[in-house]
Specification:
The protein is an alpha/beta fold. The protein folds into 2 domains: about 1-35; about 40-165 and about 205-260, Undecaprenyl pyrophosphate synthetase (3-Layer(aba) Sandwich), CATH 3.40.1180.10. Helix content is about 50%, strand content about 10%. It has 10 helices and 6 strands, in the order H-E-H-H-H-E-H-E-H-E-H-H-H-E-E-H. The protein has a 6-stranded parallel β-sheet with strand order 3-4-2-1-5-6. The radius of gyration is 20 Å and the shape is globular.
Length: about 270
């Protein structure tokens, strides 16, 4: 065995010993001094599946499957620390422009993952996004998962597929206009009364708290259109790990970093 291989194996073994103790210490702090500072709503940008696949010599679909397999563990970690709402960005509206040979398998992987989450009945699933842009069978599966978990007394999980922040705001304004047109409100009257709250009431996440924390994996440090309206006062945490490699210790570090910040609420 080469020296470098021995060092790598030694480091992996050391991590297996040290990480559980580190995670336990962080969790104790979560239930102690930091308990009052934990986020209610966490948004997660599950980024890096394709780059992970290239790095390990697998094809793109394998990367998406590895990413899908990490969703359930994430939700379990969120349950551990008492998160109330999680929004998972699984597919952007821009992603719909990917080649058909990639998009088709990706949509099936996402639908299978959502079906699996629904079957467990641990979480209340809520699709958010432009479902009308999806193939009918995929949109139907997402809606069925939401209906099947509507009575679950668990964490609310927003499944953002396909999602774009600009599209959401446009949809909210369109919905608002249709609502007032049905009431007979003129455009002049609507212009006089429209407010931030009116638009917020027509977002995909209406009635939910805005995200306190947004996590993005893969090292990218940009929103890319994720929850543009809702994240105006959010805190952000950027993690270098590709999504399939995102671990419990990475999640706990993000939560700890959030809890230790002095929030200024956008000021």
């Amino acid at each position: 065995m080469s020296y470098h291989r021995q060092v790598a194996d030694w480091k992996r073994g050391l991590r297996k010993v040290l990480y559980p103790a580190y995670e336990a210490r962080v969790l104790r702090r979560m239930s102690g001094p930091l308990a009052e500072s934990l986020p209610r709503h966490v948004g997660v940008m599950l980024d890096g599946n394709r780059r992970w696949a290239r790095a390990v010599g697998h094809d793109t679909a394998d990367g998406h499957r590895a990413g899908a397999a990490n969703i359930e563990p994430l939700l379990g970690w969120c349950d551990e620390v008492g998160i109330q709402v999680v929004t998972l960005w699984l597919l952007s509206t821009d992603n719909l422009n990917r080649p058909a040979e990639e998009l088709g398998p990706l949509l099936s992987i996402i639908a299978d993952a959502v079906d699996s989450l629904a079957d467990q009945r641990r979480w209340r699933l809520h699709p958010v996004g432009a479902l009308d842009l999806l193939p009918d069978d995929i949109a139907r599966r997402l809606k069925t998962a939401a209906e099947a978990t509507a009575d679950v007394d668990g964490m609310l999980v927003n499944v953002a597929v396909p999602y774009g922040g600009r599209r959401e705001i446009a949809d909210a304004v369109r919905s608002l206009l249709h609502e007032h047109a049905a009431k007979g409100t003129s455009l002049e009257e609507l212009a006089d009364i429209i407010s931030v709250e009116h638009i917020a009431d027509h977002l995909y996440t209406k009635g939910q708290p805005d995200p306190d924390l947004v996590i993005r994996t893969s090292g990218e440090q940009r929103l890319g259109g994720f929850l543009l309206w809702q994240s105006a006062k959010s805190e952000f945490y950027f993690c270098e790990a590709y999504w399939p490699d995102f671990r419990r210790v990475d999640f706990l570090r993000a939560i700890r970093a959030y809890a230790q910040r002095e929030r200024r609420h956008g000021v």
